[in-house]
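Technical appendix A lists one of the benchmark inputs used to test multi-chain prediction within the project. The record comprises two sequence entries:
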Amino acid sequence: MKKLINAPDAVVREALEGMEHAYGDRLRISYDPAFIVRSDAPVQGKVGIVSGGGSGHEPMHGGFVGMGMLDAACPGEVFTSPTPDQMLEATKAVDGGAGVLHIVKNYTGDVMNFEMAADLAKGEGIEVEAVVTNDDVAVQDSLYTAGRRGVGITVIAEKICGAAAEERKSLAEVAEICRRVNGEGRSMGMALTPCMTPSSGEPSFELGEDEMEIGIGIHGEPGRYREPMAPAAQVVDRLATAVVEDLPYNSGDRVLAMVNGMGGTPLIELFVVYRELHRFLQERGITIERRLVGNYITSLEMAGCSITLLRLDDELTRLWDAPVDTPALRWGA
Amino acid sequence: MKKLINAPDAVVREALEGMEHAYGDRLRISYDPAFIVRSDAPVQGKVGIVSGGGSGHEPMHGGFVGMGMLDAACPGEVFTSPTPDQMLEATKAVDGGAGVLHIVKNYTGDVMNFEMAADLAKGEGIEVEAVVTNDDVAVQDSLYTAGRRGVGITVIAEKICGAAAEERKSLAEVAEICRRVNGEGRSMGMALTPCMTPSSGEPSFELGEDEMEIGIGIHGEPGRYREPMAPAAQVVDRLATAVVEDLPYNSGDRVLAMVNGMGGTPLIELFVVYRELHRFLQERGITIERRLVGNYITSLEMAGCSITLLRLDDELTRLWDAPVDTPALRWGA
């Protein structure tokens, strides 16, 4: 196993220490229990926003902590849900009196632990709402999930809800916006190669020399089907057709489009994918009004990509454009 | 060969089309000859800054075009120098009457072609200065280079010179700052895996299952030596020792530190590397005052990392902090 690490069981802690050294001017790190929090938290009168999940998907979620996005993120071990005490302590750390929103990707462990943390926080007098994202159209149930998986829309929901919270919208309003983003968003991903967790040292799955997996999950969970390698145009047709037909997105719709790399895909390839997505949507009368191209929700060193669409309205567009200042997303601030 | 492309000889052009669709509000793309230029170029009275080189190192250089950084970038085919006519046309497109700086990584083809372009531009009455970066301490000469290779410091020079040009410093002043950045900067990289150009379909070199290459070049050119895989702490000791002893950086120095991913390395590993670099420098009394952790100068899907240091003074720090608004680096704007 070739990884730039010291020891498999030290990766998450040591990466957090690296983040603390790099961003200590704007983030604070708690190690026991582990969470990353804005250094100015809690912001009085602002809804606090907490997300979290297994590590190995960086920059999600820790790279999205900061002004205009998350107040805190709880990293689990690699591909492992964080624990309720992490989520509880993060919730307490960001409660500025206006309540706290939990944004939870639909994975069984994450959902269960965030529910437990919400109950505990409510017991301490903190108002908590939770929104579970489930935008992955690939499969109905999966290895770690009942119902659809929560993937790329989570990044976008964190940005948009973060902006809504900065405007001092109420907890009910921020949660409603989060549900709307999830409801108007759809994703699907694919892989060219598996990845390897530091602790297993084995590939997450096997894929033939000339095969790709369409509809892959972000931990290498099985997708819809395998087929021989094909040109980028055909890969995008596969993914985007499933995404567009699911909502469905219709001619005249304005969308935010994210082309996300799984971690091991060169950026030059993501721009080829973006070109094909632009063509695909243009042929259907769907206009890309905002976009994000890069590595945002990854699967360690997996090669592949995912496509996420969000149908925009004026409010969501305005909230997307609002200033954000985090390690991984930064503009206008 | 598993790549998200349509055809090997279409990759660069199609990725440019993707960039045009994604960033058409701020960048213009010329296809014949190929270059990427700020949409508001030429900026009257401002020194224009042009860089370029083979593709496959994204986001460098095209992702660094915009306010506060490059005015134009010339992408060659993958790992192949751009041609003098690309550089000449880019130079003409960004000349706002204050002259144009060429920032050139020390690779024989790049240097030769930029020299030719500069001569042609001067013949058309444009004042041109060129600065060749050569910060890679790994080897003296290399496969494509006489003298040291130009690597990570190029990214930092483009940012700092871009800020200097925005302040309306003269061509001589911006060129002097560029030479200073190169003079105060040193880098070294390593690889865990090779990469594969789309046209060759073969790995750029062979590396054993349990080996790494220390001092690798950004096209997979040989480095200093191979050795068995080792913990991140030891990898950083190898790279950082060579970097620090070369300038040398001394106790009391303030530095900008870049931990750069080669394209296929998960971000969580780069933060482990950053942790080790912080430790290494702290032990030597060297203070990291600014940092960059991520994929900035890549080698397609190669797994590995590089470390770059720049010794800071107040002026360089101020120019680094100045607003920048490009696809890949964006702050304060």
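Chain A touches chain B through 59 residues (CB under 8 Å). Chain A has two domains: 10-184+322-331, 185-312. Comparable benchmark entries are summarised in Table A2.
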